[in-house]
């Protein structure tokens, strides 16, 4: 019962990107409805405390020439540049251009807004979609800390291009929809949708009428709020991003989104709206895509100047005015603002004490800035409370301060502050030096002098075993960063008592803080039983290098396995403790309390996930796999390719019964939580495939009860202990997944997967039967007359036998499957096999050497006939 955990970074020396989402507009009778699905899975990976993230390689840094000077506004109309995937009809192009002109006329920016317009074939019920291509936060020029801004707005506030040649907004509209009204003058008919109203509306979302709050079942949450979200309030005026009022990821926050009493409140909205807040659409039933990020449709009805951003449009309706509310809100979001922007990259830690350090900025404003209000507040002891104002030099439109060189070790803490004529202060970084109402500091910081700071790195070792036929073993991604840079990442390993080998990790081409490594063994280099030891070393670029080791002391270890001779079947009740047949990690062959026999058991209780990270990059969202590998490969049969066993499964169930095990992309659905599964490998352990979907305690009511009422502790863990009374039977078709074929030699792996949420008693397995005889209800027997050694064609010899019976029977039809049973005189089936007969003669052998001496009945059944013969076993 958990969501994906994201690693959060609040470092203010960097800015971060999340990829945005489209608005999808679908046509329903009489209405055009938008559907909007947040996809937080696309948020760029954040780094843990201690990191300073570099700007991504794909971002082109450009210093934009200022269009303003101190005390002069930069109120130049925004420039919109439209691109087209394929040329649309002239009347459609004119609508796109007109919509862009309308928005450009009310917005100020010295960075062009780049829009890709696509007039294309879409699903028949979809009118179109549009949205910002990315959101960024903590960039120089932002007004609020840890707040996402749509890319076009962020570039306006940063006064530079932040996404290179990428588009800021992408808009798709359905070229196949027959009832568009494509005029700019006149009105649509009662059966037409006004294309210009739709395009104008969608551009509005891309420019900022959108946020980051999402709903997941009973709760609402955000990774970081959007700038829109910072101005959402309830009827009492309480901010929805105030976590003292509404905890993030809580039912209370969701209740506000469905209260019918939600508002957008900014100073300029109040000023233009008769001191009233703008009412948002927040119906009691939350609708993804309509709720929250639209104005209320009942308050702002058709023909109201502020109806543009309502959640739907009817045929024949026109909403072509920008109104007063949206432009006013956009102004307070940052489209009308002041910024202090550094003219060069921010300083990072350095060891060079022989040079001066020059701090320089430009001031941009859409209003008046007080003369001489710009200040650089700086301290050299790292304490921002000791910062003092430094004298600035003005050259053209650039203000600068030179910090003289000094041989002493210094930690520089600083921020910039200026003041508008109205008295409003603006800072870089945002909200410096302390975020109002909190104890959280906001300032830039770096150290000059000998570096003694170790790299910050994350690595999790996943290896506990490999197979001897493996030559390349790719390791999880290692994350590493350092205040002055990473020099090298490498691995040291040894095989058994052999020499230590050193091999390097490779830096990722796309994310400079990621490093990838692998073992590359020669064929035959490793053998069964070898213990491989290794550690990973991270070295920084300091003159006197600083190191980090994984593990911190000693080495990781893993064992080399090899498979045994392949068998046709495998049966065990575990009473003989066949430990040599298995490799066990987190399993044991034992007899737990409340059980009467030995079985294959995980740890009881098993532990929460702690060993590996889901995205292979470290972090707190970890999992652990408990594995039991049968080292005797099974030769898959065409007729009896089945696995039978008894089991107790007390593992954390999915929150909802019926939750799909797999996501649409084929990966395991993270909402499935813990699970057990049986997997097979036909390439000697190199790759594994699921024989069927995983399952959990939702499979049987008796197991499910372990996660209800008094069986659950206050942390959500099941305290119910397993017992033999909870056993249920499991049958798995080896061929059912389509991954295996008759004749394949398949290793089998029993796995319990545990994530970081709740845990329970675990998994117990007994009476394992793989392609062996299965107890069945004895057939009704009709004894034939026995003449010598032949009964209606059924021939068994030798009879009596000391342990081997050869069974032969001519069949009328070729290519049949017959059922062969051996039954003792008490009616118990001691042997059962389905035999595929290639020709017209059944000819097979039965090994009976371990049966008790006595009389048995051999029963052969085809689809239409049955043969029975008495046989004698004498030993």
UniProtKB/TrEMBL annotation:
Under SUPFAM superfamilies, the record lists: Metalloproteases ('zincins'), catalytic domain (SSF55486)
Q: Where is the Secretion system C-terminal sorting domain?
A: 798-871
**InterPro entries for this protein:** MetalloPept_cat_dom_sf, Secre_tail
Cited NCBIfam families: Por_Secre_tail
Name the UniProt record assigns to this protein:
T9SS type A sorting domain-containing protein
């Amino acid at each position: 019962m958990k969501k994906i955990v994201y690693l959060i970074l609040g470092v203010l020396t960097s800015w971060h990107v999340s990829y945005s989402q489209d608005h999808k507009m679908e046509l329903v009778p009489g209405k055009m409805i938008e559907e909007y699905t947040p996809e937080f899975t696309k948020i760029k990976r954040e780094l843990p405390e201690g990191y300073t993230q570099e700007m991504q390689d794909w971002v082109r840094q450009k210093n934009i020439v200022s269009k303003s000077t101190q005390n002069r506004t930069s109120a130049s109309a925004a420039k919109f540049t439209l691109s087209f995937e394929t040329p649309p009809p002239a009347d459609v192009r004119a609508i796109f251009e007109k919509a862009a002109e309308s928005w450009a006329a009310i917005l100020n920016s010295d960075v062009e807004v780049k829009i890709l317009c696509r007039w294309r074939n879409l699903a028949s019920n979809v009118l179109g979609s549009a949205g910002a291509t990315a959101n960024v936060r903590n960039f120089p020029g932002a007004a609020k800390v840890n707040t996402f801004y749509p890319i076009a707005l962020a570039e306006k506030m940063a006064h530079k291009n932040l996404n290179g040649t990428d588009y800021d907004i992408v808009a798709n509209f359905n070229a196949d929809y027959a009832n568009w009204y494509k005029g700019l003058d006149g009105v649509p008919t009662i059966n037409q949708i006004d294309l210009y109203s739709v395009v104008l509306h969608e551009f509005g979302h891309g420019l900022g009428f959108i946020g980051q709050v999402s709903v997941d079942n009973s709760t609402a949450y955000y990774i970081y709020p959007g700038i829109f979200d910072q101005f959402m309030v309830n009827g009492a005026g309480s901010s929805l991003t105030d976590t003292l009022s509404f905890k993030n990821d809580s039912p209370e926050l969701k209740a506000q989104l469905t209260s019918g009493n939600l508002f957008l409140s900014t100073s300029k909205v109040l000023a233009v709206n008769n001191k009233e807040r703008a009412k948002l659409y927040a119906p009691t039933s939350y609708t993804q895509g309509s709720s929250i990020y639209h104005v209320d449709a009942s308050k702002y009805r058709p023909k109201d100047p502020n109806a543009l951003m309502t959640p739907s449009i009817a045929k024949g309706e026109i909403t072509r005015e920008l109104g007063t509310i949206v432009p006013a809100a956009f102004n307070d979001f940052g489209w009308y603002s002041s910024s202090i922007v550094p003219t060069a990259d921010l300083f990072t830690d350095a060891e060079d004490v022989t040079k001066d350090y020059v701090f320089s900025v430009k001031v941009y404003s859409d209003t008046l800035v007080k003369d001489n209000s710009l200040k650089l507040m700086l301290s050299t002891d790292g304490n921002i409370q000791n910062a003092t104002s430094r004298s600035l030099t003005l050259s053209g439109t650039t203000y600068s301060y030179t910090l003289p060189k000094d041989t002493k070790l210094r930690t520089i803490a600083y921020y910039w502050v200026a003041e508008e004529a109205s008295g409003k202060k603006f800072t870089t970084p945002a909200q410096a030096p302390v975020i109002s109402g909190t104890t959280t500091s906001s300032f830039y910081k770096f150290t000059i002098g000998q570096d003694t700071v170790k790299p910050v790195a994350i690595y999790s070792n996943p290896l506990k075993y490999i197979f001897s036929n493996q030559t390349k073993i790719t390791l999880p991604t290692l994350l590493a960063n350092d205040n002055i840079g990473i020099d090298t990442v490498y691995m040291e390993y040894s095989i058994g008592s052999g020499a230590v080998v050193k091999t390097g990790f490779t830096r990722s081409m796309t994310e400079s803080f990621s490093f990838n490594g692998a073992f590359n063994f020669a064929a035959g280099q490793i053998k069964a039983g070898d213990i491989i030891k290794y550690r990973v070393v991270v070295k920084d670029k300091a003159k006197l290098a600083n190191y980090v080791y994984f593990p911190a002391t000693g080495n990781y270890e893993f064992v080399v396995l090899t498979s045994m001779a392949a068998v046709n079947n495998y049966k065990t009740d575990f009473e003989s403790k066949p430990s040599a047949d298995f490799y066990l990690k987190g399993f044991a062959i034992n007899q737990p309390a409340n059980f009467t026999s030995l079985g294959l058991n995980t740890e009881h209780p098993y532990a929460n996930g702690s060993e590996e990270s889901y995205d292979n990059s470290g972090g707190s969202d970890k999992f652990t796999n408990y594995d039991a590998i049968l080292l005797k490969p099974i030769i898959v049969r065409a007729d009896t390719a089945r696995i039978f066993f008894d089991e107790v499964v007390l593992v954390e169930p999915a929150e909802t019964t019926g939750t799909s095990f797999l996501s649409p992309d084929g990966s395991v659905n993270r909402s499935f939580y813990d699970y057990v599964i049986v997997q097979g490998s036909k390439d000697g352990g190199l790759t594994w495939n699921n024989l069927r979907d995983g399952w959990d305690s939702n499979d049987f009511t008796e197991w499910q009860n372990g996660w209800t009422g008094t069986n659950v502790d206050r942390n959500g863990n099941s305290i119910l202990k397993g017992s033999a009374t909870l056993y249920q039977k499991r049958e798995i078709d080896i061929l059912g997944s389509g991954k295996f074929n008759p004749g394949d030699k398949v290793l089998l792996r029993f796995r319990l997967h545990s994530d970081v949420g709740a845990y329970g008693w675990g998994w117990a397995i007994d009476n394992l039967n793989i392609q062996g005889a299965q107890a069945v209800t004895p057939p009704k027997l009709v004894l034939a007359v026995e003449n010598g050694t032949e009964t209606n064609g059924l021939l068994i010899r030798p009879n009596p036998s000391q342990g081997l019976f050869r069974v032969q029977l001519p069949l009328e039809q070729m290519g049949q499957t017959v059922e062969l049973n051996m039954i003792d005189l008490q009616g118990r089936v001691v042997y059962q096999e389905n035999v595929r007969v290639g020709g017209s003669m059944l000819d097979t052998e039965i090994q009976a050497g371990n049966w008790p001496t006595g009389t048995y009945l051999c029963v052969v059944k085809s689809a239409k006939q049955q043969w029975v013969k008495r046989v004698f076993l004498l030993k």
